[in-house]
Amino acid sequence: MSVAVLLKPEDKLKPAPRPALAGGREVVVLKFGSSVLHGPEDTPNAASEIYGHVRQGRRVVAVVSAFGGETDRLLGHARELGLPHENLLAPAYVVQGEEQAAALTALACDRVGLDAVSLTVRELGLVAEGEPEHAHPRSLDDARLRQALEDHEVVVVPGFGAVTGEGRVVLLGRGGTDLTAAFLAAELGLKTVRLVKDVDGLYDRDPNNADGALRYDRASWDTARRLGGSLVQRDAIDLGQARGVEIEVAALGRAAATVVGDAEDAPHPAKPYQPVRVAVAGAGVVGGGLLKRLLNDPRFEVVSVLVRDPKKPRDFACPAELFTAAQDDLLASKPHVVLEAMSEGQAGHDLIRAALDKGLDVVSANKQAISIDPAGLNDLAWGTGARLAYSAAVGGGSPMIETLRLARAAGPVAGFEAVLNGTVNFMLERLAEGDAFDDALSAARAAGFAEEDPSADLEGLDSAAKVRLLAYEAFGEAPDDLPLEALSPDAPLGRRGVRQIGACHAKAGKLEARVALESDLDPVFHDLKGERNALKVYGQDGRVWTCKGRGAGRWATAESVLADLSDIVRIRQGL
Asked: DSSP string covering 111-171, please?
């Protein structure tokens, strides 16, 4: 899917086309090693990397190593208790480190709204032969993996481990997660595999210990064997060459990578990475989630935080001197990017205009602010050379704007229908289970979905703002008339399966839109649980596009903002 950022033509990212599974879904294999997964606290970073690919319309196989130091710890246990001449049982114990990391990475993906599942080494079905601690993959019983890819957006699998034909667990040697990833890419018919490391590519010498190290954009198999060292496992390089799978070596959050394959370019000085200066407006549910992530990420420098009351206690640690109640102070802190997560529409709109007018890039999660005048904001951004992104303003962590842009790029859009409000969907499910209205609302507040004043959600105003934004993306204009049906204690809900549907269709040259409580539901909407949202887009040629995700909550919405931020950073820094 196209990124949800207002891009200039020269900005557009053009990822290489990737083979697909049944149904036309593109697939990418990503590998995360212990250099980026030091512990469970790093799994949100892997989830962010995965999320970026999913919102581009891909299914992801994420291959993970054990957390830093865990393999050595488990091997130590096994060797203390095993016989040195017959250590056949140790691998089954050691791969628990990878399986634990896979399960926690899948949980991190689920938290931000991705449909993820983890498999064990035995479930994966990778068959290997050879020494118990340095076997070589021979085949893949891929029925389970392919079915998981059909059923889920993300499949997280453990690297390093495999099974023999007799079902005994073996290991693939030090750095074997690289080999697992390369082998899975080959078996899935992919032309590339992406290894996410703690460096942004292959250098002619260690960039951490030598001045003047030169980076390769493309490196040959032989160069990778000579210089790769511990960066890429030798067996993985050999397999990539034998099976025709190029190996991309990249860092978290970077689009560029060193591509290891048949061709080679001369190495060159790497472009230094400068931390991006970020200002955050709003420190509530979404803004607080953003700050929890950004303040601990060395790629970013938070320079100012706009709040109503700088002295109010927060549920996260932040230097007091960053807080301000003045918009002018926020803009005077010289940010590169402003992240707008305010709760007020007009105040957010005014800040966005002021930032764009100064040529600052803006990412917004505020549908009320954007929906006031999306065309005017986009025109202002074009005029000042700034970039405006607002994926999180519609659908939280569900990539609705990307989906609509993909549909519109393929041809004229006939219309769309969607569940757009996580608070209302959460409450409708509770009400269907027998909760009283006030209890359902209290539960939505406790879960972090409903504001203290939930009127915008319950009256349909929130969904209406999102319908207008989606209509702008679909048709280049918003509907003039948009009737609303409120959710109230007296609403005639009838039976189970009621959803608040926001829709807009082009009919006879006019836009017909609504926000209504409906029970005659498309299957895409019928089974939505809790705060999840979904969108269905109809092309005039009969094609249909859909997407689902968490439509409310701190982490899902913050993840969408961070994905927009990452897109802008890659464009700004040519990464």
From this structure: HTT--EEE--HHHHTEEEEEETTEEEEEEE-THHHHHHHHH-SEEEEE-SEEE-TTS-EEE
Placement of tokens 């972090």 in the chain: 448
CA distances from 245 to 4, 78, 118, 184, 257 (A): 30, 34, 24, 10, 15
- Residue 316 CA to residue 314 CA, distance in Å, equals 5
- Residue 313 burial (C-beta neighbours within 10 Å; 0-12, 13-18, 19+): exposed
Residue 1 has pLDDT above 90, yes or no: no
pLDDT digit string, tens, across residues 525-544? 988 888 889 999 999 999 99
SS3 402: helix
Residues 572 and 439: beta-carbon distance below 8 Å = no
- Given this model, what pLDDT does residue 301 score? 96
Q: Read off the pLDDT of each residue in 555-575 and give the average, rounded to a whole number.
A: 86
Q: Report which of 15, 158, 143, 22 is spatially closest to residue 91, judged by C-alpha positions.
A: 158
pLDDT of residue 55: 87
**Residue 65 near residue 198 (C-beta atoms within 8 A):** no
Give the helix/strand (H/E) hosting 102: helix 96-111
**Alpha-carbon gap, residue 58 to 403, rounded angstroms:** 12
Q: What is the mean pLDDT of residues 217-243?
A: 94
pLDDT of res. 11:
41
- Is residue 380 scored above 50 in pLDDT? yes
Measured between alpha carbons, how far is residue 165 from residues 63, 108, 132, 548 in Å? 22, 33, 13, 39
Would you say 354 and 386 are in contact if contact means Cβ atoms under 8 Å apart?
no
Residue 331 contacts by C-beta under 8 Å, 6 or more apart in sequence? 279, 338, 354, 355, 358, 360
Q: What is the mean pLDDT of the chain?
A: 89
Closest residue by Cα to residue 63 from 173, 178, 151: 178
Q: Tell me, what DSSP letter sits at residue 207?
A: T
Dihedral angle sign, alpha carbons of residues 434, 437, 443, 448: positive
Nearest to 358 by CA among 379, 340, 332: 332
Sign of CA dihedral 434, 435, 441, 446: negative
Whose structure tokens read 């978290």? 252
Sequence-separated (6 or more) residues with CB below 8 Å from residue 156: 62, 64, 102, 103, 105, 106, 109, 116, 117, 118, 119
- For residue 220, the Cα-to-chain-centroid distance in whole angstroms is 31
CA distance 407 to 431: 34
- pLDDT band of 3, cuts 50, 70, 90: very low
pLDDT, one tens digit per residue, over 74-133 is 988 887 876 554 567 788 999 999 999 999 999 999 999 898 999 999 999 999 999 999
